[in-house]
Amino acid sequence: MSELTVKGLDLRPSKSAAAALGRRGHDRAMQTAVVVAALLGLALTTVIMGVIGLKDVAHAVGVIGWRGLTTLVLCTAAPLLLLGGAWFLLARDEGLARLPVFIWARLIRDASGELLPLSHVGGFFIGARAAILRGVPSRTAFATSVADVTAELIAQVLFTGLGLAWLAGRLAAGTFRETLMGGAGTGLALSAVAVTGLVIVQRRGGRVAERLAARFFPGVAARTAEISAAIQTIYDSPGRVAGAAVIHLLAWVASGLGSWAALRAAGVEINPFSILALESLVAAVRSAVVVAPMGIGVQEATYAFVGPLFGLGPDLALALSLIKRARDLVIGIPALITWQGMEGARAMGRKAALGSEATN
Fold it and tell me: Model pTM?
């Protein structure tokens, strides 16, 4: 008799129970990985602050201070409106009255990506969910989110290219410049190839996704087909995708100019093109190192080490990164609280409706 049976009773776990245990183990592993990555990021930030000098960093934060933070918060409005507008442009069946919904949902997407221990993929789903809560059909929310992320990646490649071009003009000819620009150029080319492949997969991979869903996840096969068809509809209008990419590029520029305005408000003199280039490289590194939750450590290291190449001291560059973290808290926390309130109200409404049906 098997040791897993007792008096004819089969004590082996069922397939569903085994699958549940597997999912729990996977979730624990993911949670552990996020915690470890966050701790490593915090440790890296602490080391960088120690190398630069805690007093110097604290003084630089004081220099930027409330004026810089206030300016940065106010200047966030322009890129946010542009980002929401780019997303809305891809939702061809939604009326102009829906534009504020996409702006708000984009705010939730960014807030969750910056403040919650999730990757940007998690922010993507939360942003789509926020749009659904405000009445956008689920297939439209997810399909336009996919296309919007792609348009943003296209814009980021262009923005990074502009930053590298400006950096190349600042560096003196020599081995350092050739090595740095060669590696950066290779990375940019690979990014362009990756984005091109992503577009091709979205345009032609829908049927494959539908077949896989029908075979392995029959319960969501119909929804997968709807989203796939919606994505195809978006790409049937390439002008909209191109327009969204252009708007995203303008949003990147507006965000960089917001950082420049914050420094100027604090009395720090620096060329706006240098800040734009710095911001483009920071964004590129953060996108490449997606395993770091909230970009902790990665963002700070990039500002501290790349800032001096554009005439911004490492103390001020690191201070700018920390002030931007404070900006994210000031804007993101109220947004996430609002989103959670809406989720809670919807859940309570469903519970009340089910209770009413049970009573009847």
Answer: 0.84
